[in-house]
Amino acid sequence: MNTQIIHVPEGTITSPAGFQAGAICAPIKAKNRLGLAILYSENRCSAAGVFTTNTVKAPSVLLSQKHLSNGNACAIVANSGCANACMGEQGINDAKEIINLTAEKLNISPEDVLIASTGVIGMPLPMNNIRRGIKSIKISPHGGHEMAQAIITTDTRTKEIAVNCEIAQRKITIGGIAKGAGMLCPDMATMLCFLTTDAAIESSCLQSILKNVADDTYNMLNIDGDTSTNDTVICLANGACGNKIIRDNTPEAALFQLALSEVCHFLTKELARDAEGATKLIEVTVESAQSITDARQAAHTIVGSSLVKAAIYGSEANWGRVFAALGRSKIKIEPTKVDIFMADICVVKNGCPVRFDQKDIVAKLHNKEVNIKVCLNDGHYKATAWGCDLTQEYVIINSSMIT
Amino acid sequence: MNTQIIHVPEGTITSPAGFQAGAICAPIKAKNRLGLAILYSENRCSAAGVFTTNTVKAPSVLLSQKHLSNGNACAIVANSGCANACMGEQGINDAKEIINLTAEKLNISPEDVLIASTGVIGMPLPMNNIRRGIKSIKISPHGGHEMAQAIITTDTRTKEIAVNCEIAQRKITIGGIAKGAGMLCPDMATMLCFLTTDAAIESSCLQSILKNVADDTYNMLNIDGDTSTNDTVICLANGACGNKIIRDNTPEAALFQLALSEVCHFLTKELARDAEGATKLIEVTVESAQSITDARQAAHTIVGSSLVKAAIYGSEANWGRVFAALGRSKIKIEPTKVDIFMADICVVKNGCPVRFDQKDIVAKLHNKEVNIKVCLNDGHYKATAWGCDLTQEYVIINSSMIT
Q: Which of A6, A13, A235, A388 has a CA between 20 and 30 Å from the CA of residue A360?
């Protein structure tokens, strides 16, 4: 089996066959900015989703979870500028109406429509604008980029990708778009991410693959430790490429997971790079841990440490903060076995400082991508987490209510 | 019983009878700055301690824990500028030598000396300077303020207090000093805190009272979510005031706890106020929770949220971030029962937004102390956590290695 995964130039969610998308300004919050979008597949799709673990869930999350219970969907309607969270009955009614209007427009059942919202919590949706907006949105097979633009908030650019690979002699395509910025943490990150594929895949298989991939990607992203009320990752598979349906525990499923993983790793790193105020992507790998849970927890704690993040911003090789974050991560470690590398340079060996060339390491810490590796030398499990540096710009953005 | 607790003007750790202290520059890190200090009581003291929960513990923590195992001590030797953490065998040997030199100087057993260090992780102590320093330190009954100066690092001022109260017809005094600044989080905060009293109290009673008080004060302080390798709170009780010894489960023990609590609340709030880059003290109270653990966890999560902290810095009434932080605190809540108050103004009732005067609330959020109250309306437990706003100054301080 050819397992090569090829990136599609200017790939996006409408790169896979049979998907259409479009967006409009509405306006929701900002005038002259796309803020409302629809994704649609004429073929009914196998559909899977992963959502926020926050106890406070927006109506968009609750309704999408409900509509995914049968494993199928045809469309996603999404808006930015207003999270429609913590709005009581009104919020639920508004979300339902948006679903109904979208279903009417596309002539499908409301149960086949999923919904996602992002933006400020605690403000009502401008329903009149949205009603008009849904009617006016024009969808097309080239509308993926428009939809990517419509979902971003404080992101400085869209995050889009598509890849090809061959599964059982058929070329399948997977596309994805995401928005992130702040409030990005464990169990999802404040993010919306929509994934499409023209492969045919059983919905239960799609759900388990999406969960696996999200655990290694979006759930290993930590921007500021906060978790939103609206986090949503949805994957739609419409089967338009005509492959034999992919089922659980087959080589085809494994290959599909590999390709989806490529898409999601790309988007995860893009989200970290473009996080609020970020100047650097930080990648923390914890190796030789006693369990995958331990490795993930330690990597998460280190990449989320304000002091580590601030040190990387200043290009300081302050490994003491890395070691201290590891120590408070609540996993069992043997401090005298720990090795730490910053920017590929060993700074701690067997728990003790190692002499290193300060100039050399500072130069490497000035790069746009900084890696930190911690070897626990205590087991066989490994995990990687992604985050970004903590900058003055983050504080400026988040001390005024612009998100 | 008269339960009045009176603050002593310019009170410090040498305010209680029988304690002496002194400090010297050494120098350890900064020239012309006090960095090494000794606290001493001729009477052997009941002694209690609470320490960091970080798995990576500095030798100072490990040795103090060991020396406290018999519940007695006569002296504390402390330094700032170097944490002496993650230094392997050398670190342990250096800490032991400092203890031995202090014991020799004071003519007491090394087991009666406790030790505390704070500062940068992963640098060796300048032992020659320390050896000379210990010999040269002059201790006196007026040296408490000097010691308070010697332990601070990025703090902008010393934190000192003493209170009087009457227990069983005797006036007892409790004094305390602390240093904090960054790396302050659950289970202690990166801090050193030394408490003294001339009351006589059984050491097991002192230990349980100190633990209770620390759980409500220092352990409810969250500056940046990081927990240090060196956190140390020690209380010495020398009995110099001649009271009948205070034992567990007596009204006298309760009164002593009240007075110690007053001292520790004062120091906790001072630590939050003077945290790195802080412009505001944030006090978060969670009420009507199902358990004290739930109340504490929710209060901690909210006060530690980067987004909440940044909003308070900008005087923004962004209650959505408070609600989102509550939702991810992993306690069980019923969102539709939640009320939220910011600066005493109700912003959320039964989970839904309440209209409020934006100008009024912004004016109140400009105060130096901001309170946030969350009523879960779901139980009978309450907890308060303290923290500070997240400012550009915090990032500036922590992106260059000056701590």
A: A388
